[in-house]
Amino acid sequence: MSIELIVLDVDGTLTDGKILYSQSGEEMKAFDVKDGLGIASWVRMGRSAAIITGRKSAIVERRARELGIEYCFQGVSRKLDKLREIMEDMGISAQSVAVIGDDWNDYAMLACAGISFAPSDAASVVRESVSVPLRSAGGDGAVREMIDYLIEREGLEEEMRRLWLPA
């Protein structure tokens, strides 16, 4: 069964997990552009992406919009419940879902997915439980590594090339 939806945690997965505050108290996060290109490409190929995160941040909402991420849920304490809502909305089973996460609050969601991933710096209990432990760290290409893995696994290399190479 093919993967139709990728589900992304934010802190420790799309970012390095650090939370920075400016002098005025504004929160800042750094995102990897290669992760972004991978996500945007996944979406342009007609597949779906979701963010399910425990924290709330306007920065995350902005990044989701920039990348064309259809589902963006923040402040979620029970991530698996939110994932099930998305699957029901899309009419897909867990076998069509890939999830990446890095800590205990992602554990149930990772266990539910058809295929699961964890960055190299994820909590050890999470890394030991996923289908594919990644070489890249959170915020440093882990999401891109996951997407590249899925593109190869799903046989989408030619479709990816067509997105970016001139006709």
Q: Which terms summarize this structure?
A:
167 residues, 7 helices, Rossmann fold
Q: By helix and strand content, what is the structural category?
A: alpha/beta
Number-wise, the strands total: 8
The CATH topology label is Rossmann fold
Classify the helix fraction into a percent range: 25-40%
Count of DSSP H/I helices: 7
Please identify the top-level CATH class. Alpha Beta
> In this structure, how is the largest beta sheet organized?
6 strands, parallel
Q: Roughly how many Å is the radius of gyration?
A: 15 Å
Distance between the termini: 30 Å
Strand content: 15-25%
Number of domains: 1
Sketch the topology as an H/E string, one letter per element.
Answer: EEEHEHEHEHEHEHH
Q: What is the level-2 CATH architecture name? A: 3-Layer(aba) Sandwich
**Order of strands side by side in the largest beta sheet?**
5-4-1-6-7-8
In the predicted model, the low-confidence regions spanning at least 5 consecutive residues are none
Mean pLDDT: 96
How would you describe this structure to a colleague?
- The structure is a single chain.
- The chain has 167 residues and is an alpha/beta fold.
- It has one domain (5-156): Rossmann fold.
- It has 7 helices and 8 strands, in the order βββαβαβαβαβαβαα.
- It has helices at 33-44, 58-67, 79-90, 107-112, 124-127, 142-153, 157-164; strands at 5-8, 20-21, 27-28, 48-52, 71-73, 97-100, 115-118, 132-133.
